């Protein structure tokens, strides 16, 4: 059947449901007119309150419960009784409906309901002969008619893409999916509470930026009509948060959306969530300890333990995380020693011998060191590891190591080949920062579309004086993936970006 106005094709089940709805309207029972339904209990509250009583004790109780939920199971018990299961956000419970208790006419309407319909019920508690806690319904009302059928109970959503495109259906039929997003919220709340308890302040900074900066990433561009200017969706919150430190706040953080115009994969979504934290008078080693503690607290909140399995590996987040200098890591894996002073040409020759392609904009030894790390080391890291000492050239916002200024006071946390955090002892020398931005402009002219813009306002902010500061960014989505054992980033985003249907 095709609706000529909407040009939509309906299945046989959808046609039947629409016909049922039209009959309800004719009978003065349009369910969409219901605006409120006051519940005395949520379903889990009913279970918690009455499960301890046996069948005989419940039979003597006079408590009346009023609750609501979506019909997930429907079974007739003869011609004049029906068992059904209804589900709300937290739980599912059985209900028992008899014609002689709700009346012949109401029973007729109840019998005509479909799986997926949302109903409100009033009744008393009972237990079946099998000991299942059940609401013995005295009154039922249809609150919302489901015009589309739910997927088959056993088959579920067969098309994995449908899982992501119709997340609302996935949430209805898969309790594991719903629990993942409950756990996501727990993780975010745990981080907030931990940081709040330390006296750090949560702030909000702009999403639209006039310059692209704060990270090495390709931005999304948009035109700001009122200013007749090109703007960028932020690729990081870093530069504005550090302005807050200049302004006198000593610990600020932001949890928010970041946008990077990059590919879609099981690990990447162009729109994702991160937390960035900046703390005055601290360095990256302070934030190593903090990072470990935050992740352990999140693991305990979600799983009640610090051990977990991910990507086929057993991990213990309760153990101290390894701390590994990037140059030591490269030497251990490849035998190449970048502690030795060498020219760019010498490093380029070593790269060629190892089969590493060096792009034109990678014009320094530091860039080649990073290429070696990405090619040979990242894939070997399984246990939680802080890789630190990144080359100056790829860390334009990090403070140089005072003992060896070729490298910076920066680390990245890797677990099972994936990056989870990025941290600096922040560069607070405005003269050095200006020179680093100039180097980034040179890279941009050489073809690096991830290079930072020159942010003169940020340089001028540093000229007013920023105290020694440590900053960290943690990817919330990947942390949720780790702690919920989710294989794809799409599994932890309620509504991930999807390629257009073919």
Specify the CATH homologous superfamily of the largest domain.
Bira Bifunctional Protein, Domain 2
CATH topology of the largest domain: BirA Bifunctional Protein, domain 2
- The helix fraction, in percent, is 25-40%
Measured distance between first and last alpha carbons: 24 Å
Side by side, the strands of the main sheet go 8-12-13-20-19-18-17-16
- What is the makeup of the main sheet? 8 strands, mixed
Which class best fits the helix and strand makeup?
alpha+beta
| Total helical segments | 16
CATH architecture of the largest domain: 2-Layer Sandwich
Kindly report the average pLDDT value: 94
The shape is elongated
Share of β-strand residues: 15-25%
Number of domains: 2
CATH C-level class of the largest domain is Alpha Beta
Low-pLDDT parts are none
The tally of beta strands, per DSSP, is: 20
Radius of gyration: 29 Å
In short:
This protein is an alpha+beta fold and 502 residues long. It has 16 helices and 20 strands.
Description:
With 502 residues, the chain is an alpha+beta fold. It folds into two domains: 2-150, OB fold (Dihydrolipoamide Acetyltransferase, E2P) (Beta Barrel); 172-321 and 383-492, Bira Bifunctional Protein, Domain 2 (BirA Bifunctional Protein, domain 2), CATH 3.30.930.10. It contains 16 helices and 20 strands. The chain has an eight-stranded mixed sheet with strand order 8-12-13-20-19-18-17-16, sandwiched between helices. A hairpin with a 4-residue loop joins strand 4 and strand 5 (92-98). Helix 11 (326-334) packs across helix 13 (365-377) and helix 14 (430-445) packs antiparallel against helix 15 (456-463). The longest helix has 23 residues, at 175-197. It starts with a strand and ends in an 18-residue tail after the last helix. Its cofactor is Mg(2+). Its EC number is 6.1.1.6.
């Amino acid at each position: 059947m095709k609706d000529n106005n909407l040009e939509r094709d309906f299945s046989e089940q959808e046609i039947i449901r629409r016909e049922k709805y039209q009959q309800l309207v004719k009978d003065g029972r349009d369910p969409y007119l219901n605006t409120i339904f006051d519940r005395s209990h949520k379903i889990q509250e009913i279970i918690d309150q009455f499960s301890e009583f046996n069948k005989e004790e419940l039979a003597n109780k006079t408590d009346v419960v009023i609750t609501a939920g979506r019909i997930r199971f429907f079974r007739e018990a003869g011609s004049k009784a029906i068992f059904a299961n209804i589900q709300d956000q937290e739980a599912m419970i059985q209900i028992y409906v008899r014609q002689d208790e709700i009346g012949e006419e109401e029973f007729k309407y109840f019998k005509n309901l479909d799986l997926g319909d949302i109903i409100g019920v009033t009744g008393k508690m009972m237990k079946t002969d099998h000991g299942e806690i059940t609401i013995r319904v005295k009154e039922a009302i249809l609150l919302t008619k489901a015009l589309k059928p739910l997927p088959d109970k056993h088959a579920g959503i067969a098309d994995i893409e449908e899982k992501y495109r119709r997340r609302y259906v996935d949430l209805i039929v898969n309790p594991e999916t719903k629990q993942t997003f409950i756990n996501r919220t727990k993780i975010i709340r745990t981080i907030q509470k931990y940081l709040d308890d330390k006296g750090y302040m949560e702030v909000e900074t702009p999403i639209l930026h006039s310059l692209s900066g704060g990270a090495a990433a390709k931005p999304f561009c948009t035109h700001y009509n009122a200013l007749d200017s090109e703007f960028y969706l932020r690729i990081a919150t870093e530069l504005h948060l550090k302005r807050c430190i200049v302004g006198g706040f000593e610990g600020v953080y932001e949890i928010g959306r970041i946008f990077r115009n990059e590919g879609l994969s099981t690990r990447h979504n162009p729109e994702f969530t991160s937390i960035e934290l900046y703390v005055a008078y601290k360095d990256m080693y302070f934030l190593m300890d903090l990072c470990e503690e935050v992740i352990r607290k999140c693991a305990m909140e979600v799983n009640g333990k610090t051990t977990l399995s991910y990507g086929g590996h057993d991990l213990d987040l309760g153990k101290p995380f390894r701390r590994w200098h990037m140059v030591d890591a490269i030497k251990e894996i490849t035998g190449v020693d970048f502690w030795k002073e060498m020219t760019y040409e010498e490093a380029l020759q070593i790269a060629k011998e190892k089969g590493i392609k060096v792009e034109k904009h990678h014009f320094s030894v530091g860039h080649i060191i990073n290429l070696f790390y990405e090619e040979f080391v990242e894939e070997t890291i399984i246990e939680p590891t802080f890789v630190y000492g990144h080359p100056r050239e790829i860390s334009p916002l990090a403070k140089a190591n005072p003992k060896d200024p070729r490298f910076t006071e920066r680390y990245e946390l890797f677990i099972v080949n994936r990056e989870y955090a990025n941290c600096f002892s922040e560069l607070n020398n405005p003269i050095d920062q200006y020179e680093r931005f100039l180097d980034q402009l040179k890279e941009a002219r050489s073809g690096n579309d991830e290079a930072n813009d020159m942010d003169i306002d940020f340089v001028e902010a540093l000229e007013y004086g920023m105290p020694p500061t440590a900053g960290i960014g943690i990817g919330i989505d990947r942390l949720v993936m780790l702690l919920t054992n989710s294989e794809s980033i799409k599994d932890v985003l309620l509504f991930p970006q999807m390629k257009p249907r073919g």
